[in-house]
User: Fold Glycerol-3-phosphate dehydrogenase [NAD(P)+] from Geodermatophilus amargosae.
Amino acid sequence: MSGPDLSGRGTRAAVLGAGSWGTTFAKVLADAGCTVSLHARRPELAEAIAESGENAEYLPGVALPGALTATTDAAEALDGADVVVLAVPSQSLRANLLEWTPLLPADATLLSLMKGVELGTTMRMSEVIREVTGAGPDRVAALSGPNLAREIAEEQPAATVIACPDADRAAALQAACLTPYFRPYTNQDLVGCELGGAVKNVIALACGIAEGMGFGDNTRASLITRGLAETTRLGVALGAEPATFAGLAGLGDLVATCSSPLSRNRTFGEKLGRGLSLEEVQATTRQTAEGVKSCRSVLDLARAHGVDVPVTEAVVRVCHEDVPAAQMVKEIMSREAKPE
Ligand SMILES: NC(=O)C1=CN([C@@H]2O[C@H](COP(=O)(O)OP(=O)(O)OC[C@H]3O[C@@H](n4cnc5c(N)ncnc54)[C@H](O)[C@@H]3O)[C@@H](O)[C@H]2O)C=CC1
Ligand SMILES: O=C(CO)COP(=O)(O)O
Assistant:
């Protein structure tokens, strides 16, 4: 086995980022038997979590387990950690990691929960992690799947994928977060799992826009299916396994996110579809809708590899080029007719 044994009790995990998903996944790890330190940026949030056993800002009403503590001190959170979980917005990962890298335990597994592609570099999150920390490929993993935080925090059953090129490391992570309500599968296709997660946010924005315009289930199903086709094309061009996109990190996450009112990306799109401007929608939410920024890096990545991604292109035009949603629909529906 190439990594440390993380299975069962005794695993120490640091979760960096105390938003919706970081807090929820910290609870999953604690429920699976790990000792968990959750790092929050703001002292008042860490204090409130410590005092009330609840992250009232992001997950009101969810009782957090006793094995979970919260701190604003990154060194304290990372001290002796076997697993370091990264759960900040994708575009802030690099800056955060520059600060945290000197504190990382030497052989800790670095697990990304993030679903985005870095603007400017078009790097996936695992690539940013490796570049900033210098960690080898066997130490860096990603978790992705149909995992709307609120549902998992309420212990509604869900499955997910842990992707790592090192199968032993993936299996150890699987054991560290397996609970009666959370079922992780392993996969060695890191590229496919990360891309599935990042691109589905863009497709969910498109589905939200369609919903906001008053369109129904046929439109959503068409966007999901053609969105999956373009995600798969891009993934395969980058070396991913096509089968990954039929799995939990592909179709599974796409269906959940494109259909759920809990999705921040879908909800963001819905407001755009109702006619609000990007700035107006941004003013209504503090939480991260990754697709709003990542649509541009996904498009850059696709162009760099000569891959056609019409749904992503349409989302970029509505979000960043002031193209009205109705015009976007006209453009997408008048593309050249072709075989499926
Ligand atoms: N919420 C969900 O249901 C799920 C989210 N994800 C992914 O997990 C990642 C984190 O998402 P959430 O926890 O939902 O986000 P969130 O918006 O709820 O929380 C983000 C956290 O990062 C912290 N942070 C650190 N540096 C920051 C900076 N420079 N700017 C803004 N915030 C900063 C914030 O204080 C906050 O605690 C995203 O990539 C998202 O796509 C993945 C699966 C499910
Ligand atoms: O990734 C998610 C579900 O798997 C969460 O989606 P949102 O970021 O759109 O809320």
Remarks:
- Residues 195-333 form a domain with the N-(1-d-carboxylethyl)-l-norvaline Dehydrogenase; domain 2 fold (CATH 1.10.1040.10).
- The chain has two domains: 12-188, 195-333.
- The mean pLDDT is 96.
- The chain is about 50% helix and 10% strand.
